[in-house]
Write a structure and sequence with these properties.
This protein is 72% helix and 0% strand. By secondary structure, the protein is an all-alpha fold.
Length: 396
């Protein structure tokens, strides 16, 4: 119990800071994870088939180290340092999943999404009447990272509207799964407030003006509606058909949809060309933007697609490793769902596809906030996977 408090309390504090004061929270969590690599060396058995994500990260580190032959020392060192921090964060999340209950993390992620929505409106109002210094906006997460045209989109404390949308979708997926099935640990004791929270998350997603986010939100709501009102599926289908007719009228940034799609396709094509320049080992994570600029004369920080970014940064080994990781994880998730029907598996069945689907149109892992939340979800899925055969199903 003493060890649990010693690890869990500082970690939960770091998560709260991650939402409210992102740079402080990130720094605190990185500090907490600083010796995790040493624990891994002392207990090498933890590197096994039961932790494919750790093996994948170590593979990326090996590929990055081999890029020293290309004499891009700066890109290699920065990429290696990033992956070293990533290993430590993953091991910290893995350890925390054994000490902190899933329902505690679930509640935090939902509250994080609510805070992003509320703070987004508050920051927008404050920026209308005050000129906040950049250092304060950076500390609060209100300093926009990305195109200046995104300034009018909601992003709260997440720095970027697309990253905010991903976090909101994860929070909504967890909350809608919770609302569609009975649970011992709801967000609050009052169902009306829980549904109001879901509505607020939907408003937040819409205000990020992410087209992909809105499509995924609608898909999420459709799945939840069929689960809750399974006896009225014909009526729901009819209402959806009518709703789709008017959907385009309220679709955010609909006038620029085709222009944005063409721009994104161009980035994907150029990113694949970057991969073709170094197909075996890639150009390293921090070497991507420089190589892209040399080839096109345009600065693009990442490939706006998780698979293409890994392919261009770490070559065919990184791309094949990622596909193997996704297929293996999906197969195990489906297998465990059919065998054990663990209620907690519903949360992973809902959120993991959302993360992958959103990652096909944007590389949200460039956000440390999003990255840490995703690592936590994977860590809890791993913990659930190991615990399921030994314990009877429970509702948490």
């Amino acid at each position: 119990m003493q060890k649990r408090f010693a690890v869990a309390s500082p970690f939960l504090t770091g998560l709260k800071l991650l939402a409210i004061l992102p740079p402080v929270g990130i720094g605190w969590l990185v500090y907490l994870s600083r010796w995790q690599w040493l624990a891994l060396l002392k207990h090498p058995r933890t590197f096994s088939k039961h932790d494919p994500l750790l093996g994948f990260i170590l593979l990326l580190m090996g590929v990055t180290a081999l890029n020293l032959n290309h004499r891009d020392y700066r890109g290699v060192l920065l990429s290696g340092l990033m992956l070293f921090v990533l290993v430590n964060l993953w091991l910290l999340c893995r350890e925390s999943s054994e000490l902190i209950a899933w329902h505690e993390l679930r509640r935090f992620i939902i509250q994080f999404g609510l805070y992003i929505t509320i703070s987004g409106f508050v920051f927008h109002w404050l920026n209308q009447i005050l000129t906040l210094p950049n250092w304060l906006k950076f500390l609060l997460g209100d300093l926009l990272w990305g195109y200046a045209a995104n300034q009018n989109r909601l992003f709260g404390s997440a720095y970027n509207p697309n990253d905010a949308c991903c976090l909101l979708l994860i929070a909504l997926g967890l909350l809608m799964t919770q609302l569609s099935r009975p649970t011992k640990h709801p967000l609050t004791r009052w169902p009306l407030i829980n549904w109001a929270a879901a509505g607020l998350l939907c408003i937040g997603i819409y205000q990020t003006k992410s087209r992909t986010g809105l499509v995924l939100m609608i898909a999420l709501l459709i799945v939840t509606a069929y689960q809750i009102f399974h006896r009225h599926r014909i009526l729901i289908t009819g209402l959806l058909a009518v709703g789709c007719v008017t959907l385009w009228e309220v679709f955010p940034r609909s006038a620029s949809t085709w222009t944005a799609l063409q721009s994104r396709i161009t980035i994907w094509q150029n990113s694949f060309d970057v991969f073709k320049q170094a197909p075996v080992l890639g150009v390293t994570y921090f070497g991507f933007a420089r190589r892209y600029f040399q080839m096109t004369g345009t600065y693009v920080p990442h490939a706006h697609d998780i698979f293409l970014m890994l392919l261009a940064s770490f070559g065919i080994l990184g791309g094949v490793g990622f596909i193997t990781l996704v297929i293996s994880s999906g197969w195990h998730l489906t297998k465990y769902w059919h065998q054990y029907r663990q209620p907690n598996l519903r949360y992973f069945m809902m959120t993991v596809p959302i993360i992958l689907a959103y990652g096909l149109t944007d590389f949200v892992l460039s956000s440390i906030q999003v990255l840490i939340i995703i690592l936590l979800i994977i860590a809890y899925w791993r913990h659930e996977q190991q615990a399921t055969p030994r314990y009877a199903p429970t509702i948490r």
